Structure prediction request, 164 residues.
Amino acid sequence: MRRMFANLIAKHPVEAASFYQKLFGLQIRFCSDWFVQLGSLNNEWLELGILREGHEDSVNLDTGPTPHIMLTFVVDDIDVWFAKAVKHGVDVVEEPRNMFYGQRRALVRDPIGTLLDVSSECPPDPRWRKRIKRVREGYFVEEPPPDYPPLPLFDHLDLDESKP
Prediction:
């Protein structure tokens, strides 16, 4: 795979794009009446597309609220970002709070109803951190509670630590 990014569907892609420009600093890389591609000036791999509802690329797609998707954005300081978002009238689902896994998170909705998880780092709960085990370079697993069935997440990996 060479590239992957999410596409949202909106009645007015340019208007939806302005939300991401104002609150995340994304810039328009491509703009037409049917599609807006946004990206980061600092990281070419951060992209988001917005398709116009009813365009041939989005025909037959469910364009209602997106109850089964949540986009996650990691920012430098969630409290600064959240204050800015509130000034812009963002739809707040949950104000910033520290999560046990080491993120301070806020939940908001964009103008087309997509749930956004916006967070920055904070210290994790030490009890939770003790349950995280490295199984191989770049792969980690949370040890489940004793009464929980074993997790099959890494069954496909050869977890012999003596191998590189």
Remarks:
- Strands lie at 6-10, 27-31, 35-39, 47-52, 70-74, 91-98, 103-109, 115-121, 132-136, 139-142.
- Residues 13-24 form the longest helix (12 residues).
- DSSP finds three helices and ten strands in the chain.
